[in-house]
Design brief:
This protein is of the alpha+beta class. Helices cover 14% and strands 22% of the residues. The protein starts with 45 loop residues before the first strand and ends with a helix.
């Protein structure tokens, strides 16, 4: 069912694996169809997000001046946890969650045991979005008890939010950076498809906490695919 993604989803970073439009044995997936998106999206855009049962609904707005107010250590996808020190702690207060063009939020893949156990999949996709850019469907500021949203404290200072009806992974929050929220990319309803690339600046250099991954072979294939994607991106910008 790769066609359901609209843009190929993670399969574009796993070219070694066979992908199917629907059930295996049917039509091979041949890539997204449709007209290309505008290269300069309007800053007034909003991105709707919903779980499978629609019990949790919210939307995200484009980065703005308020988006730069949070302070946060770097994500492990950018600076590995093994480095530590001032750079990991982001003592320079760099706003790493906002893209260079100022129009998108950072996104990354995580293979930590906690995300795997919570989502039920080897790789969880997160977007890093300031709380001020997340709104309830009716326009009110986000509320972590809205709709069917439920909370699980996976360890001290860490809250994972999910839909109490369909079980969809929704948010990850930390007291270390309370104003910067991890949003599950799978909930996003972007016109381009499940990677939402007109909204997200994917960090392809590293899979977060890949050292703890259980499915080593999958990580090897995915890391190769991400490396190929980086090379293509670099070539396009030459």
């Amino acid at each position: 069912f790769v066609a359901d993604t609209g843009d190929g989803g993670l399969s574009v970073w796993l070219p070694q694996l066979r992908a199917w439009e629907g059930f295996p044995g049917g039509e091979p997936y041949r890539g997204p169809t449709g007209s290309p998106l505008a290269s300069s999206p309007s800053p007034d855009d909003r991105l709707d997000c919903t779980c499978r049962c629609a019990g949790v609904q919210f939307y995200i707005t484009r980065p703005n001046e308020d988006s730069r107010r949070p302070c946060s250590p770097y994500s492990d996808a950018i600076v590995p946890h093994t480095e530590g020190g001032d750079r990991r702690e982001n003592r320079r207060d760099e706003k790493w969650w906002i893209s260079d063009d100022g129009m998108r939020f950072a996104a990354a893949l995580c293979a930590c045991n906690s995300c795997r156990k919570s989502s039920g999949y080897d790789v969880q996709q997160w977007a890093f979005v300031p709380k001020v850019n997340i709104f309830q469907k009716d326009g009110r500021p986000t509320d972590f008890s809205m709709g069917t949203l439920r909370q699980y404290t996976s360890r001290e200072g860490i809250a994972r939010h999910f839909c109490g009806i369909c079980g969809a992974t929704v948010f990850w929050r930390s007291t270390e950076r309370p104003d910067l929220i991890d949003v599950s990319v799978g909930l996003m309803e972007a016109p381009s498809g499940s990677r939402a690339e007109e909204w997200l600046d994917w960090k392809l250099e590293r899979i977060s906490f890949v050292e703890f991954a259980q499915h080593k072979r999958l990580m090897e294939l995915l890391e190769k695919g991400l490396g190929d994607a980086r090379a293509r991106k670099a070539k396009e910008t030459e």
